[in-house]
Amino acid sequence: MANVGIVGAGLGGLSAAIHLASSGHDITVYERNATAGGKASEISSGGFRFDTGPSLITMPFVLRELYDAGGAEEDERVELLPVDPICRYFFDDGTVLDAASDEQAFCAQVAALSPVDTDAVSRFLDYSQRIYELTSDIFLFHSLTDLKSLLRWKHVKTLLRLPQIDAFRTVHEGVQSFFHDDRLVQLFDRYATYNGSNPYTAPATLNIIPYVEYRMGGYYVRGGIYALVRSLVQLAEKLGVRFHYETTVEAITTKHAVVQGVRTESGIRTHDAVISNADAVYTMTTLLEGSRQAVASKKHHYETLEPSCSGLVFLWGVRGRRDALAQHNIFFSGNYAEEFEDIFVRHIPPADPTVYVSITARVDEDHAPEGCENFFVLVNMPYLTEKNRDYDWAGYRDSVLSRLQQAGVDIETDIVYEEMITPADLEQRFNANRGSIYGISSNSRNAAFLRPSNRIRKPRGLYLCGGSAHPGGGVPLVLLSGKLAAEAVMR
């Protein structure tokens, strides 16, 4: 039985804790904040309740397998509700399109919008499914540092069939080869942002994501995504996991290139292994004992990895109901390429932003006072640089409200509660590398191989999980990262 310390009680850390504890290991979780969840947190005030992180669950079998591993009873599991439409899209030209969860219905909606693209959605999803079937086993369900796994013949065959996973085109080039209508290209380009990347530079392999969402389904957690955090904490505690909240890990200690444990303000705690659910770059350049000297001497490759995009969040409690909106809504910018140039090349807030709005009160009415709704509003932003660190984030509010108003959604005078989460807040609260939401971007063809692995070779006994580690961001992949880290410890 191993004595394992886990740094951070985000979804990845909770997954690792449950997998290890259910196998009989002794687990202690250290969380610097007062509650678990990491970026998947919640805020309640003035009768309004908001999730502050993810808003959609995909690949529900991953969550089901985690509950099964922990021996959860049925009443200990969250209820997943299918989302329909998956999203309502508002285009710059005034067009509105619902992406129905039923593929035939979605195809009919697309055909009405662009008759020349009548069969394009099904063809594109077939292509997306083919990428998933070729890559998921090696890139999602196994660690890239597990040599025995990589040498399995079916995995070698995948590596030999790289052209079929479309790794040599960009997301945009792949999407554009299927659709004639620029609005549909923009709709499917946006899936690169699911892990904080640029569709004009990220490999088309990321076109796997629409298959996951449309053919496996998109789900909402009854009570909000934070209900999932609560249920996983309860399951972990039932399995004997100990949580230390408001406990900052100051360093991961080592001796002779072997992890010894962690140092907190109350002293050093010894562990056989440590899993860090903190940001991977922060872990390797700041938390790991001796790493700061390597960074200072410019001998640390983690410093060279491009962060994903960051985000600016507004939590607005709004009087009245806007019937034009669905539970999930996207208001697209007029020039998507320019928006990503602003974010990833010029490193400035986009002049013409795409705005995402989620309203959980459409399902859980108690998330807002009677006659009101809770707007979670997200705009993709550049990661923090010297150029934008002092930006007036509050002043960007007008750009967001203007984009909504342009689509006929005028809420400014009806906002009765407001809170803002900036890239600087993400950096400070969660040690997110330069305020990035998803850790490392996937803006290169070899991005999957550059993402920090779940097992660190040196020092021995250090493992990583979370959205900044393999296999990536998004709830199911983060849960898988915890599982992969746990399996690596057990190996």
Q: Which keywords apply here?
A:
globular, FAD/NAD(P)-binding domain, six-stranded mixed β-sheet, 20 strands, seven-stranded mixed β-sheet, 491 residues, alpha/beta
Can you walk me through this structure?
The structure is a single chain. By secondary structure, the protein is an alpha/beta fold. Among the domains are: 3-40 and 222-305 and 451-490, FAD/NAD(P)-binding domain (3-Layer(bba) Sandwich), CATH 3.50.50.60; 104-216, no CATH class. The chain contains 17 helices and 20 strands. It is globular and about 65 Å long. The chain has helices at 11-22, 60-69, 103-113, 120-140, 147-150, 153-160, 171-176, 182-189, 208-215, 226-238, 280-287, 291-296, 336-345, 397-406, 423-430, 447-450, 475-490, and strands spanning 3-7, 26-30, 42-45, 48-51, 80-82, 87-90, 96-99, 219-221, 242-244, 249-255, 258-264, 267-270, 273-276, 310-319, 328-331, 355-358, 372-381, 415-421, 455-456, 462-464. Strand 19 and strand 20 (462-464) form a beta hairpin. It has a seven-stranded mixed β-sheet with strand order 7-6-15-16-17-14-18.
- Silhouette: globular
Main sheet makeup: 7 strands, mixed
Oligomerization: single chain
How far do the termini sit from each other?
12 Å
| The top level CATH class name of one domain | Alpha Beta
CATH second-level architecture of one domain:
3-Layer(bba) Sandwich
Poorly predicted regions are none
The number of distinct β-strands equals 20
Look at the structure and give the mean pLDDT. Answer: 93
CATH T-level topology of one domain: FAD/NAD(P)-binding domain
Q: Strand sequence of the main sheet, in spatial order?
A: 7-6-15-16-17-14-18
Q: Number of helical runs?
A: 17
Percent of sequence in beta strands: 15-25%
CATH superfamily of one domain: FAD/NAD(P)-binding domain
Give the proportion of residues in helices: 25-40%
Radius of gyration: 22 Å
Helix/strand-derived category reads alpha/beta
